[in-house]
Amino acid sequence: MPGKLVLLRHGQSQWNLENRFTGWVDVDLTDQGRAEARAAGRLLAEEGIRFDIVFTSMLQRAIKTMWLALEELEQPWVDVVRHWRLNERHYGGLQGLDKAETAAKHGEEQVHIWRRSYDIPPPEMAADDPGHPRNDVRYRHLDARVLPGTESLALTLERVLPYWHDAIAPRLKAGETVLVTAHGNSLRALVKYLDGIADDVITGVNIPTGIPQLYTLDGELNVIESRYLGDADAAEAAAKAVADQAKSKLGNL
Ligand SMILES: O=C(O)[C@@H](CO)OP(=O)(O)O
């Protein structure tokens, strides 16, 4: 029997709170985000889940969410692998900008295209920008050509999938229970692949912070069932709040 898979988006980050495009910027969790991560750990404990291995990104909001959830599970000793391929989608020149202000400036439709279209990336960040991952010491061992200055969801999926096939899928096929703590869009890419969601339907999928999504898979890793743990209405409301983040405040006046 293949193992179970849990996908967990990090708890609320400082820039989720400030409603800013984040991408690869390494912002910390807020107090609420830390509480969400612990609550996720408690939901997993109540479900009787124990992990064999955890995969996470190179960004502290996902790493700390993993720590806090594992602490609640009394499993701080579990093997952890960090990998850049699980990082958030790179948001290019939008990183750091306020989502509602950007919608007021460029229109909600344009911002929706940048946020949720499948294959249209936001404007690219220049390679010599201090914020470009090529200039970040943590990625110094990587071939600079793989490091993005912007990404659509399609490009994100293209770099997440090799890691899924090489590192994550074999552990599930071996019957292990796997936690992936990552990000709104790197997880949307994975969910698109796992659930076979069409390009024009994934635009409507939003992943709430800090709520574990439990997948039961068959031997070929086809999805038998997936569900958010805890209160389903709360998960739905939280996903809708993510969708609404780029509503122009001017539009609401
Ligand atoms: O800013 C980001 O990097 C992502 C996730 O927080 O935001 P969005 O939901 O707008 O894609």
From TrEMBL:
The record marks 183 as: Transition state stabilizer. Gene3D superfamilies: Phosphoglycerate mutase-like. It catalyses: (2R)-2-phosphoglycerate = (2R)-3-phosphoglycerate. GO terms for biological process: gluconeogenesis; glycolytic process. Substrate binds at residues 9-16, 22-23, 61, 88-91, 99, 115-116, 184-185. Coiled coil: none annotated. Keywords: Gluconeogenesis, Glycolysis, Isomerase. GO terms for molecular function: phosphoglycerate mutase activity. Pathway: Carbohydrate degradation; glycolysis; pyruvate from D-glyceraldehyde 3-phosphate: step 3/5. It is an enzyme of class 5 (isomerase). InterPro entries: His_Pase_superF_clade-1, His_PPase_superfam, PG/BPGM_mutase_AS, Phosphogly_mut1. SUPFAM superfamilies: Phosphoglycerate mutase-like. The active site is at residues 10, 88. Its EC number is 5.4.2.11. Catalyzes the interconversion of 2-phosphoglycerate and 3-phosphoglycerate. Belongs to the phosphoglycerate mutase family. BPG-dependent PGAM subfamily. Homodimer. This is 2,3-bisphosphoglycerate-dependent phosphoglycerate mutase. It comes from Salinisphaera shabanensis E1L3A.
